[in-house]
Design a protein that fits this description.
Layout (H helix, E strand, L loop, with lengths): L5 H11 L6 H14 L24 H17 L1 H13 L3 H11 L7 H13 L7 H8 L1 H6 L1 H12 L4 H10 L1 H5 L6 H13 L6 H14 L1 H14 L5 H8 L5 H14 L1
């Protein structure tokens, strides 16, 4: 792996940029840059990619950052061209280029939100490259969550109510970026979203739901405990007390006691 000299990298990207009108040549040139900085001493899935089993260049994260800075103006000024580039990048085998596709989706303007949603939906529902779906959901939805969070929730509701059970898992996973987004203040909308799943905590979703509870507790412990106590009172599921016991570790001792008492009163 060649050490990254930012001045040299920026020169390489600047020389490549005129080829962007010819996407085949542009992607080829981009791959050459990634290969130039690739670390082939790491087995697949080892750091710095953090993604397991998929091919990777194992390049430093600064490379994707610099490519994004170079291409971001085109997201606003040439969004249709960038959409074509995104489609090509998502078909590349390496993790970094697929991550780049997700990041570019997240930079597209509101006029292209439906195109962004179409790609998130298609790539998620194809059940291919599932390891990258959390990354796709977090980064491709950035602008949608900022400018039209309800549109993101609409997609998640679509998955939650699908007859295909695995799509419900995607819906549960898909609210985590909203929970973690400090600019998103409508936590009650997220509690409403997960209520049907929490009051009947199916074993096939429990791991995903517990992850959501962990993120909610980190965002607002008091509101999350209030929500869970209400869910306990609404639930008739015999597995609810066990689910609450598994969630206790995410809360302070005082809140753990409060939740235990609520679970006992339900019994």
């Amino acid at each position: 792996m060649s050490a990254i000299n930012l001045q040299r990298l920026r020169t390489q990207l600047r020389l490549l940029l005129p080829q962007i009108g010819n996407l085949i040549e542009f992607v080829y040139g981009l791959r050459e840059i990634y290969n130039f900085y690739a670390d082939h001493t790491h087995p697949v899935g080892e750091p710095p990619t953090g993604v397991f089993s998929l091919p990777a260049f194992n390049t430093p994260t600064v490379l994707n950052r610099e490519v994004m800075q170079t291409l971001t103006p085109y997201c606003e000024n040439e969004p249709d061209l960038i959409l074509e580039l995104i489609d090509q990048l998502w078909q590349e085998p390496e993790v970094e280029l697929r991550q780049l596709a997700a990041q570019l989706l997240g930079k597209l303007p509101p006029a292209k939100f439906e195109s962004v949603i179409d790609r998130i939906r298609a790539w998620s529902e194809s059940a291919i490259n599932t390891e990258l779906l959390p990354y796709l959901h977090r980064y491709a939805s950035v602008n949608i969550r900022e400018h039209n969070p309800q549109r993101w929730l609409d997609l998640l509701y679509e998955w939650e109510t699908s007859e295909r059970k695995w799509l419900a898992k995607l819906a549960i996973e898909g609210i985590i970026p909203l929970i973690d987004d400090e600019n998103f203040e409508n936590l009650p909308a997220l509690f409403t979203f997960i209520t049907p799943l929490i009051i009947n905590p199916s074993t096939e979703y429990q791991f995903d739901l517990l992850k959501v509870i962990k993120h909610l507790a980190q965002r607002s412990e008091v509101e999350t405990v209030y929500f869970l106590k209400k869910a306990i009172s609404l639930s008739t599921d015999p597995g609810m007390p066990r689910f609450i016991r598994r969630a206790l570790e995410f809360f302070s001792p005082e809140m753990q006691t409060s939740l235990r008492n609520a679970a006992r009163e339900r019994v």
